[in-house]
Amino acid sequence: MPALWIAHVTVTDPEAYGKYAELAGPAIALHGGHFIARSARYVQLEGRDHARQVVAQFPSLEAAEACYHSDEYQAALDHARGASERDLVVVEIED
């Protein structure tokens, strides 16, 4: 069953976060993921507001989780740590 990787991000260091973004895309693609939305228009209805919203779809929840724990994605994430405030969740898509 496909799954969505949903991230809400506030970037605090654009230069470092840019390096993360360069490396994260290929890592996500390597695990069968593709972006559905990145910094598109949005409306905050509840909760904390983050300036950047990212949604990627993966073939399965397991593929999304494997991507997160992969060496490739962790290398990218090293650039986001300290350069952003992030919330990330993976949600399985119901039929």
TrEMBL record:
Gene3D superfamilies noted in UniProt: 3.30.70.100
Domain DUF1330: 2-92
Pfam family, one: DUF1330
Name of the protein this chain belongs to: DUF1330 domain-containing protein
